[in-house]
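Case study 2.
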Amino acid sequence: KKVAKYIIGSTQGSEHRFDHGISMFKTPRDSFKILIPKKQVNKTIYTDPDLIRHLVNTRDGFEMQSGSMVGEASTDEMGHIIDIMGEKYSLSKEVSRDFFNTYLAHLSNNEKPGDNENTKEAIRMFEEDKKGFSRRVESQVESPKPTSPDRERLKKKARAKALALKLQFEF
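Prediction:
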């Protein structure tokens, strides 16, 4: 969400790369080209109806061009598209620490990790699971190790069978 404001405000011709080879370019028409490599991994992304709804061509969605699925979105819709790609598909854009401190840190909404109710609930459930796991491990009884068979006895048995077969074929 922080990076959406930066991407939308970028200059014409700017390229933004995400996970799975996905790229976005700002075009001279004040819109964005979204390129998604046509791979099985990305199929759910370029066929997503929520994503297609925010494209300029909502009827056809993404179009095949040179091995990539290409779509165009207006600047107004880019916030929604970036949110969908981040929330549904966990796509992210790596930026350097200097870049983050210079351009993105001031866009923070001052929410610290753990402030969200869902995060607090997940942490509480994790702590309960840890306690339950410890109790289950303590209550487990160590099973006795299987004894290894007497190798000499097995060898003698195998020799006896071989000898019996040999004798059987001699008569």
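The longest strand covers residues 31-37.
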